[in-house]
Design brief:
Blueprint lengths: L2 H47 L11 H13 L14 H20 L3 H6 L1 H20 L1 H6 L8 H25 L4 E4 L2 E4 L2 E4 L7 H18 L4 H33 L7 H46 L1
Antiparallel strand pairs: 1-2, 2-3
């Protein structure tokens, strides 16, 4: 064996063992960040689970977080195609400021801001692990978490009452035109000998918050590179949510008229809540099929015109 071969063999072993050592350090660091994040935000999740997440208007938070986690999981194969360049300075700054904000808002019982700080905290962790390339890769799951933030009370109050009055107007006018003995005063609907009040849960605010999130998720994950179709789909979620809520209130009012007020509480009321989401999602996907059909028709017509021009030329 020559002297050169004796010198290169240990160097090759060192080169082979170096990535393995680096990988183990990265996995340990990743596990430490994950455990620290869980410990830091566990009290926040416990408070939400005991309050906001039990309400119909704000109970969508865990569902949105699971959707964001799934969107992040689908990006795992793309990690192999990017070069990880940790950005420790930016990562530690964002992480420190976000955790400080979380601690201050937790002490002041500002639950919405406290919960929202998990987004920049996760961004700081991504920068520490893989830098800006990794942050760009997971930009959508991070941004999607905005939909999981509990809306502030003043925002709910500002929109809930006008929505309840508007929904009550639509339902009452529709039933009056059909010949039902109905009258309406604000959020009170009188039909026959019964009087019903449109509650906050029937205002449609919950579906207005959640359905756009579903639309954004669907457009990002399942719609091809068609920005016009994506924009129209996302914008359509708000009128679809309002229409679905009108459908629910209409079902409750007619149920009270034919079955009695006592019989629409409990199971019937919950069933209309489920039917609302079924109705909204069916409308959403039907509308998407209409957009696809119009796109195909427009594409075919455009293709025929181009072919005719080519033949004429």
């Amino acid at each position: 064996m020559s002297i050169e071969s004796l010198k290169t063999e240990p160097a090759q072993r060192a080169a082979v063992s170096e990535p393995a050592e680096s990988r183990s350090v990265n996995l340990t660091f990743l596990a430490a960040l994950g455990a620290s994040f869980f410990v830091a935000y566990l009290p926040t999740y416990v408070k939400l689970a005991g309050g906001a997440w039990q309400s119909e208007q704000e109970g969508h938070g865990p569902f949105i977080m699971l959707m964001a986690a799934w969107a992040a999981w689908t990006q795992r194969d793309k990690l192999r195609s990017i070069t990880l360049r940790p950005a420790p300075v930016a990562g530690w700054i964002i992480l420190f400021v976000s955790l400080l904000t979380m601690a201050i808002t937790r002490s002041q019982d500002l639950l919405m801001v406290e919960f929202a700080t998990q987004i920049p905290v996760l961004l700081g962790c991504l920068l520490l692990i893989g830098g800006w390339p990794m942050a760009r890769l997971f930009a959508f799951p991070l941004a999607f978490l905005v939909f999981s933030i509990p809306p502030p009370g003043w925002l709910l109050d500002a929109f809930t009452v006008p929505l309840k009055v508007w929904v009550s107007d639509i339902v009452s006018n529709f039933l009056y035109d059909l010949g039902y003995p109905v009258a309406q005063n604000g959020v009170m609907i009188m039909i026959g000998s019964y009087q019903l009040m449109v509650k906050d849960a029937c205002s449609g605010m919950n579906s207005i918050f959640v359905l756009p999130a579903i639309g954004v998720f669907y457009a990002f994950e399942f719609v091809a590179d068609d920005p016009i179709r994506k924009a129209i789909l996302i914008l359509s979620t708000i009128p679809i949510a309002i229409l679905a809520n009108v459908f629910r209130v209409l079902a409750l009012v007619l149920g009270a008229y034919y079955l009695g007020v006592d019989n629409i509480e409990g199971l019937f009321h919950n069933a209309t809540g489920i039917a609302l989401w079924v109705f909204a999602l069916v409308l959403f996907f039907l509308f998407d099929r209409v957009l696809v059909g119009l796109g195909l028709l427009y594409g075919n017509a455009f293709g025929h015109r181009r072919g005719a021009r080519g033949a004429a030329g």
